[in-house]
TrEMBL record:
Pfam families: EMP70. One of its GO terms (cellular component) is membrane. It is a multi-pass membrane protein. The keyword ATP-binding does not apply. Belongs to the nonaspanin (TM9SF) (TC 9.A.2) family. Keywords: Membrane, Signal, Transmembrane, Transmembrane helix. The keyword Membrane applies. InterPro entries: EMP70 (IPR004240). The chain crosses the membrane at residues 219-241, 286-313, 325-343, 355-380, 392-417, 438-465, 477-503, 515-535, 547-569. GO terms for biological process: protein localization to membrane. This is Transmembrane 9 superfamily member. Residues 1-21 form the signal peptide. The lineage of its organism: Eukaryota, Metazoa, Echinodermata, Eleutherozoa, Asterozoa. It is found in: Membrane.
Length: 585
């Protein structure tokens, strides 16, 4: 209980006082203790499925006392579980091959190790915040007696140092021992310190993979999307300018005719629905909550990308996640302002309910899904469960930070942007929607709307998925920023065209259509994740599958809400513009 509270306060203070992971200075004096932290172990083919290192029956070294370790919220959520290895390592002091402990192969340990070796388990450690990966063991196929399982027992650490700082660590696994019941397996380690000329600031570079991320395909796809943007923007402005000019000409000619001629004349097109376009969307509460959350998501995405680009956050364990949570909480007024303002403009009355829905829509989705995955994880005895203290911390942030800030945003939004100021009056009686061709139906427009935006981002999705599910560190946030802008522009252009066709078919239900047409690109992203799962990963089993598709669904939903909002916002500007220039009797 007390430990939980202590931990909670640590987590909370870590979130609010410092966004950075730890307060290590990263400088050592000779013979000063260097801590080797054991982090996680898990199958190579799913980077996200991890268990605590000592969930396998490994043994610890003899050393007991260590300096303290504080975990940040981001680390806790990502399943980082640093535990002291017990190995005695001192700065710039070589250790010859030394035995540090012994494991007795009981029935249970034997089974656990065989399972781990069979599933290509890797483990991860940290020295001075530098990650180190090592493999647990190896299978030797033996055609007669069945496979033999071996485990690596000797860890050779080569540590490079530059003056008083650690700049490079290499791990070599040596000495294979066959796993047999009843055996005693000794574990040994060895540390060699070498002077290195690597600059401390550049020490992380060896983990980055420029060949992968700066591949020609990456540049090519950015270039391609860029051309698409230019083409689309040109196309949209050209078509719309021409068509609109023609429409305006026709409408103003109509004005010169007398009433009888007008009745006989060909009155059709988007002007006909001027009395209905500004009719509130159906389900205004849900709609404004989605738009508010979309603004929120877009703000957070942009802020986190820029902060990461600027602060190289990817080198710090869990700090991107901590930063995202911090920014998400801090940006809550954005959600209230836009969601609340829109709801009020649509004439909504139960604004408190709307605000609650707006504030908790995304947190509930995320927590609900995480809870479900956690539940399956517990069922499968997987220990990547989110700790209780972390859950309480997240709940506290939702209740005591996000909610009040959303309230402030909502009140300001209702006061400043809450008055409906539409260029056309809304008729009392809704106009019937005429029959139209099948491809003008909102459902079809929605499905088609996502194709081009998806086309502009799917190569980037490949890089993002690969860095999330495989051992690559994503660091090209400049590309990501560019793709973010490209996605926004393409989405807005495409939805404007879609809405224009819809309104021309005298269908005024443009709000949901524009939102969904833009959001449907996320549906294609989700479909793409099926392809990625089948052809690019080697995951299997219910746990990994749920994990993968659960998190991908979450990602797609968030992306969908964000794109949908971009589409809606672009379109509503467009709609206001065309209806404010048309003359209405
Ligand atoms: C680690 O390995 C790399 C590549 O093999 C080598 O360039 C570097 O010098 C090694 N570092 C140490 C400290 O041995």
């Amino acid at each position: 209980m007390w430990r939980g509270i202590l931990r909670l306060s640590c987590v909370l203070s870590a979130v609010f006082l410092t966004v950075k992971a730890d307060e290590h200075t990263h400088t050592y004096t000779t013979k000063e203790e260097v801590v080797l932290w054991m982090n996680t172990v898990g199958p190579y083919h799913n980077r996200q499925e991890t268990y605590g290192f000592f969930s396998l029956p490994f043994c610890r070294g003899p050393k007991k006392d260590i300096s303290h370790y504080h975990e940040t919220l981001g680390e806790a959520l990502q399943g980082t579980e640093l535990e002291f290895s017990g190995l005695d390592i001192d700065f710039a002091t070589d250790v010859p091959q030394t035995k540090y402990c012994e494991v007795e192969m009981s029935e249970d340990s034997y089974k656990a190790f065989v399972y781990a070796v069979k599933n290509h388990y890797w483990y991860q450690m940290y020295i001075d915040d530098l990650p180190i990966w090592g493999i647990v063991g190896e299978v030797d196929d033996n055609p007669e007696k069945g496979p033999d399982y071996y485990i690596w027992t000797h860890k050779k650490l080569d540590i490079g140092y530059n003056l008083n700082q650690i700049v490079d660590v290499n791990l070599t696994s040596e000495v294979k021992v066959k796993l047999e019941k009843g055996n005693k397996i000794p574990f040994t380690y060895q540390v060699n310190w070498k002077k290195s000329s690597v600059n401390f600031k550049k020490r992380f570079d060896k983990y980055l993979d420029p060949n992968f991320f700066n591949h020609r395909i990456h540049w090519f796809s950015i270039f391609n999307s860029f051309m698409m943007v230019i083409f689309l923007v040109g196309l949209v402005s050209m078509i719309l300018m021409r068509t609109l000019r023609k429409d305006y000409a026709r409408y103003s000619k109509d004005d010169d005719l007398d009433d009888m001629e007008r009745d006989l004349g060909d009155e059709y097109g988007w002007k006909q629905v001027h009395g209905d376009v500004f009719r509130p969307a159906s389900h205004p509460m849900l709609f404004s909550a989605l738009i508010g959350s979309g603004y929120h998501m877009a703000t957070v995405a942009l802020a986190v990308i820029v902060l990461t680009l600027w602060g190289h956050l990817y080198t710090d364990r869990g700090s991107i996640l901590s930063t995202s949570i911090f920014v998400y909480a801090a940006a809550a007024p954005v959600n209230g302002y836009f969601g609340g303002g829109l709801y009020s403009r649509m004439g909504g009355k139960v604004w408190i309910k709307q605000m609650l829905l707006s504030a908790f829509l995304l947190p509930f989705l995320v927590c609900g899904l995480a809870f479900f995955i956690n539940f399956i994880a517990i069922y499968y005895h997987a220990s990547r469960a989110i700790p209780f203290g972390t859950m309480v911390a997240v709940t506290c942030i939702c209740l005591f930070v996000i909610l009040p800030l959303t309230l402030v945003g909502t009140i300001v939004g209702r006061a400043i942007a809450g008055q409906p100021n539409f260029p056309c009056r809304v008729n009392a009686v809704p106009r019937p929607i005429p029959e139209k061709k099948w491809f003008m139906e909102p459902a079809v427009i929605v499905m088609l709307g996502g194709v081009l935006p998806f086309g502009s981002i799917f190569i980037e999705m490949y890089f993002i998925f690969t860095s999330f599910w495989a051992y690559k560190i994503y660091y090209v946030f400049g590309f990501m920023l560019l793709v973010f802008f490209i996605l926004a522009i393409v989405t807005i252009c495409v939805t404007i065209v879609c809405t224009y066709f819809l309104l021309n078919a005298e269908d005024y239900r443009w709000q949901w259509t524009s939102f969904l047409a833009a959001a449907s690109s996320a549906l294609y992203v989700y479909l793409y994740s099926f392809y990625y799962f089948l052809f690019k990963t080697k995951m299997y089993g219910l746990f990994q599958t749920t994990f993968y598709f659960g998190y991908m669904a979450l990602f797609s939903i968030a992306l969908g809400i964000m794109c949908g909002t971009m589409g809606y916002v672009g379109t509503s500007t467009f709609v206001r513009k065309i209806y404010s220039t048309v003359k209405i009797d």
